[in-house]
Amino acid sequence: MYFKERFFRPLIIIILIIQFSNIHASKSDIKKAADFLNEGDYDSMIQVLERNSNKDIIILRAKHYFLGIAYARNQDFEQAIRNFSLAIKYKNQKPDLYYELGQALYAMNELEKAQKSFSTSANNGFKESQSHYYIAHIAQLLEKSKMAKEFFIKVINNPKTTIDLKQVARFQLSETLLTMARTTNDVKNIVEKHVLPQFEKALKIKNTGPTAIDILKRIKSIQDEFGLNPSKFVSGKALPKKSLSIFASQNIGYNNNFTLTDDLPGNVQSKEDTFISETNVEASYLFIMKRKYTIEPGLAISHTVHSERDNSAVYSADEYEIRPSLDFTLEHKQFNNPATLYLNLNYDYRALDNRQQKDRVFNNRTYTYELGNRFKYFNFGTSNVKVRQRVFRSFNPALSVDTTTIGADQLVVKGGKVYLFLLNLDLARFTQSDTNDNDTLLLRTDYIWPSILPNLSLNLALSYTFISYKNSATDASQGVEKILSPSFKITRDITDRFAVDVEYIYTKNTSDAQSRNYTSHLTSLEFSYSY
User: Fold this and answer.
1) pLDDT at residue 24 is higher than 60
2) pTM summary value
3) 3-state secondary structure labels for all residues of 349-411
4) Which domains does the chain carry?
């Protein structure tokens, strides 16, 4: 017995001394790890802790907690989760343990486990608002909208929630409500009355900063998607900035071979040169209803005078016109882009010096009905198709004609330049005789350079017209008449409202009837005002 006591007592003392030394060394390692954590040196932190083999439960609690932190900061989330789990196993009571574990699980996409960790963190009173936010956000990812809504509301109602987090939570609550609204049959109404007001509340919390910018963009995006943007039509096209439009112009031109417009197909040369003065005034007012329909009544008046006063073939073309109009549009979507269905009603009263007495009297009344649709099928520009009925009633019944037009045009916008391609087919049928019945095909292309120089634009155009007569006798004498007409226009914007145009038009008419062959050059200068 005496021998055992003499042998084991020193051994126990030695073991206790070794254990005490190990514990002291381990505590020293823990302190070093904490210092490295404060310095952000996570690699050294891991190195110190991983070489520590002390099995004391107190040391293990601290070791695995700090290793979890170090691995998480180094984004080795798998190791972080393992060590945080061990820290929990060894009863570590650090308040942020479950919050840190939740973040690591979230990073590894173990979403339901992350939710449980954040729930424990919130129940423990650590970062309650942030934990509830994570629970709600994960519910969004898991498409559990009701749960997301519940916890976003908890974040918003928590008095300890910061302004920034409250705004983000309100923002994401709005997104959750939008997701829920999409599952209903009355989505547009719900978005307008319940979802958008939540986005606006989020914006009011703090109207500056990156989150506010994102919210504002989202509001506009949703308004555009559901046709609720107050500055746009329901189709998504921008509303006009003004309702009243006024245009006035004074054009002075010179034509070296004035051509007579006798209300018959084609024109006849006069072999006279003349200056031409044309004054034009137009006004219209646009009424918009429900951001979907528009009605635009308008009135245009023009007055034309020729300087040649000796040749009646020229001054008989002096005229004035009165043109009231009424235009209707329906804004809609086609091919997932804004489109416009339109109906234009126009009346034209025209007075000419048709008696060659230097006195303008009634010449004709024209009623025009046009139905068309502008839409965007191609990414590079707008397309337009239309049908038009024109009823022309002359003072001379033999000149009265009904014309049906089928047309299409295509805009191409590329590299800051605009190209226009147009095709019109006119089917003209006279009311009293078929002598001049004809089909007229117009092909035209325009090239527009809006900013060839500052405040200066260029328009080059080329048109080719083919007139085919239906009457066999007329066709035999005149054949298919062709009119080639290249032109150019330069526009200089003096101010936002005033502009000056210089235009040149060359015309060449070709016919089997030699008397109808001619060329002409028209040069003009125009001053215009628009409002």
Assistant:
1) no
2) 0.73
3) EEEECCCCCCCCEEEEEEEEEEEEEEEEEECCEEEEEEEEEEEEEECCHHHCEEEEEEEEEEE
4) 162-229 (no CATH), 244-530 (2.40.160.40)
